[in-house]
Each structure stands twice: as structure tokens, then as C-alpha cells.
Amino acid sequence: MIRIEGLTKSYGATQALRGVSFEVPRGQVVGFLGPNGAGKSTTMKILAGFVTPTSGTARINGIDVTVDPVASRRLIGYLPENNPLYEEMMVRDYLDFIAEVRGIPKARRAERIRNAVERCGLRAVLGKDIHQLSKGYRQRVGLAQAIVHDPDLLILDEPTTGLDPNQIVEIRSLIKELGKEKTVILSTHILSEVQSTCSRVLIISDGRLVADDAPERLGEGEGGTVTVVLASRTGATLRTEEVRSVLERVPGVTGVESAEGEGSGTLGFRLRYGAEDIRRALFDAAVRNELCLLEVKRQHVSLEETFRKLTGGEKRSGGEAPRAPQDDQKPPLAA
């Protein structure tokens, strides 16, 4: 559905994208992550046809977005980060207007609007002006305008920004539901949102793609922690420093911290390790030193830790790039 090859974008002396390449097959929900100024929004605006790349190509279903932007936009539903809406219009009238601009035949317009309203839970507010709606309902209206023409690809830029926790859960559930039928590329700063909704993660940093994998596999090979609770096999009193010394000598352990035990006669520790799984060596060390492992709990490096490692320490000169003029205009309606 998406094929990007060697994409670059410069705004004067600022280089927002530096040779980004990736593909997204049909039916995949992709989380697009990166710190502020990394190039996420620029990439999504190029896909949506609102920014022209300096070099490289972006294709949607085989259509080059710069060669035939009208055809490519017909395949896209786009929800920009600032979700621009015509606030003086009623929800019903606004969606009818969007459907008309999108070129939906009049005979099919009511059905398409009804489907979008049902999917986005807008029936109760159809007769209200958009300026009367809560932030959560405005996001729902933004999603409804993005899907009213039944696009193959949804591009969602920070769809839960500014929502309260309940609204975030609602919009996240809606995105997961839409992802069963559509290809979705989702930009967000909320890593838990990616883990709960996306089957794949792309991480961009300083205009370059630095990671591409399933959320649960991104931290593999990067290590993590093993939390253990130990007791003496012989009933002897355990001495913290002696047990710590044993654990520090286990091959692959890079650090040992105290943790909670399980009452009298037990000690708890948290062991940090690198790429090597330390559990077999840990078991062998426990047997040699007359220790009983009451609990062993391993945790891989979290997505947050992986993200920080891949994007941390970057020095930026103030933001991603100058915003394109379209950001300050009314909703993107080109069909």
C-alpha cells in the first residue's frame, strides 16, 4: 500500500528527511514514532500530498504522490495533528460537505455518511454545531471525515493529542477497529498506544529511519532485567553482600540491585543483563551456592527504553521544520 524510497526533504538549510525508505503492506497498522523534529509529520504530509519531497519517491498503491496527487489522495483518509474543522457547521452538514468534495455520488452519499457516523459514534451529536463539541467528539468528527469516502489508507497524525484518559481509550479502540479493514499509519508520542494498537513500529530520528519491527521484538537482543527471590537450601541465614557477590559473578550480569523478598529468610535482587539470556547461568550459580530460586521474572527492555536509546542525545536546532502553509488553512479537502 505504501512504498517510500530514498525520501529527502529540505527546508532551506534544515534537512527534515535524509533518505527514508520503507514499505507497508495492505492491512497493517503501523506506529510511526520519533522525537519532535525527527521528520514524522513531514513524511506523513508528503504521503498525503501536502508537501513535495526534495528527492526520492512516495507511492500509494503504486501511484506516485507527486506525479498523480489527485489519484493518490482519493485512496487516503487523513487526520492532521491539529484536526482543522469548520466549527460553525453542524456535524451532519460538515460530513455532507466533505462527502460532496470527495466526489461521492449523491445517490450513495447518505449511506457513506451513515456508515462513518456509526463507526465513529456520532449519532448523538449530528445536529450540533462542531464548536459545541468536546475535544473527544471533535476527534471523532475528524476520523469520520477521514473515512467517509471509504479510503484504503488512513494517515493519523497524533490522533489522541489533548484528550483525557477516557477519550484516549475510546479513540484508541476506534483506531483498532478501523485497522481491521484499512491500512493505518499512526504517528504518536504515546508509546503505550503503539503497543496496544500497532502490529509494527517504525522509529525515525533526525530524518533517518532507525528501527523497523514488531513492538514486542524491538527490545530483543538489547537485554533487560531479571528479578529473583532467593532462600537458602539448607536453612542458613542469607547475607545480602555474600549473595550479591554470587549474583555479580553470573556470566552476562551487568548490574545487581536489591529488591523486595518474600518475608523472613528470603532476599530479592534485580539483575541487569545484556544480549545474553542469563537464566541458565543463574540457575547453575544458585545450585553451586546452596541457594533456592523461589521466583525468577524476566523483563525485556521496554519500548520506551528502546526508543530513548535509538533517539536519545540528538542535538536539534529547534523543531522539525517550518510548517507548510496548509497547516493554517481549513481542512484538507482535495480529492
TrEMBL record:
Pfam families: ABC_tran
InterPro entries xrefs: AAA+_ATPase, ABC_transporter-like_ATP-bd, P-loop_NTPase
Location of the ABC transporter domain: 2-231
Swiss-Prot/TrEMBL keywords: ATP-binding, Nucleotide-binding, Transport
Segments of this protein annotated with the region Disordered: 309-335
Biased composition annotated in UniProt, kind: Basic and acidic residues: 309-318, 325-335
Molecular function GO labels: ATP binding
Family to which the UniProt record says this protein belongs: Belongs to the ABC transporter superfamily.
Protein name per Swiss-Prot or TrEMBL: ATP-binding cassette domain-containing protein
Protein species of origin: Archangium minus
